[in-house]
């Protein structure tokens, strides 16, 4: 009979040694700050131009100063005065580029069923679209999509996170 009292601890030691992790010799690079506070980035040597291309998404976001998003109250899809001001800024940019197309993405917070949230996101996107059309943007330039609660802007189950997720975002199509 083998000495199991010696074999078992040896087997455990070999198993534990095989599971140990070694520290990596090379650490991954630090994350790059991608904020565009001034609309300019330092891309020296990256091959990416610092210039904002007229008619691009970056130009749109720069022109609207981050007002590419309108927010809604809980279970609402009406355009209030703040949303109207944001959409009017978007119209100014869209009138500069009459051949530019956009997509309006409708989003909801995490509450509600998947089907309900998809329908609410669609109503929000369509409300923004209808407002833009009412200000003279050709309807054929605008497509809508609803993501419901599938692409939250803020994570969390509180009013602050939910308020950021009840939105319609305008994205240019390049």
Automatic annotation (TrEMBL):
UniProt keyword annotations, A-Z: Cell cycle, Cell division, Cell outer membrane, Lipoprotein, Membrane, Palmitate, Signal
Stored InterPro entries: Bact_OuterMem_StrucFunc, OMP_bac, OmpA-like, OMPA-like_CS, OmpA-like_sf, Pal, Pal_lipo_C
Topology of the protein relative to the lipid bilayer: Lipid-anchor
Ranges where the record places region Disordered: 21-54
Residue ranges annotated for the OmpA-like domain, each copy included: 58-174
CDD domains, sorted: OmpA_C-like (cd07185)
Keyword Cell cycle on entry: yes
Pfam families cross-referenced by the UniProt entry: OmpA
Ranges of compositional bias, category Polar residues: 32-46
Subcellular location: Cell outer membrane
PROSITE patterns: OMPA_1, OMPA_2, PROKAR_LIPOPROTEIN
Entry-linked Gene3D superfamilies: OmpA-like domain
Signal peptide: none
GO term, biological process aspect, one: cell division
Keyword Cytoplasm: no
Any GO CC annotation of this UniProt entry: cell outer membrane
Record function comment: Part of the Tol-Pal system, which plays a role in outer membrane invagination during cell division and is important for maintaining outer membrane integrity.
HAMAP family: Pal (MF_02204)
Subunit structure, interactors included: The Tol-Pal system is composed of five core proteins: the inner membrane proteins TolA, TolQ and TolR, the periplasmic protein TolB and the outer membrane protein Pal. They form a network linking the inner and outer membranes and the peptidoglycan layer.
Family indicated by similarity: Belongs to the Pal lipoprotein family.
Protein name per Swiss-Prot or TrEMBL: Peptidoglycan-associated lipoprotein
Gene: pal
């Amino acid at each position: 009979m083998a000495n199991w009292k010696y074999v078992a601890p040896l087997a455990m030691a070999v198993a534990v040694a095989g599971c140990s992790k070694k520290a990596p010799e090379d650490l991954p690079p630090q994350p790059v700050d991608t904020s565009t506070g001034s609309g300019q980035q330092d891309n020296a040597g990256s091959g990416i131009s610092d210039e904002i291309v007229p008619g691009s998404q970056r130009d749109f976001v720069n022109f609207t100063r981050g007002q590419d998003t309108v927010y809604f109250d809980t279970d609402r899809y009406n355009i209030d005065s703040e949303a109207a001001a944001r959409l009017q800024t978007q119209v100014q940019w869209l009138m500069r580029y009459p051949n530019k197309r956009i997509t309006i993405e409708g989003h909801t917070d995490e509450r509600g069923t998947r089907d309900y949230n998809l329908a609410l996101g669609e109503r929000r996107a369509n409300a923004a679209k209808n407002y833009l059309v009412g200000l003279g943007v050709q309807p054929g330039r605008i497509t809508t999509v609803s993501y419901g609660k599938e692409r939250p802007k803020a994570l969390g189950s509180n009013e602050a996170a939910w308020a950021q997720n009840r939105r319609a975002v305008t994205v240019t199509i390049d």
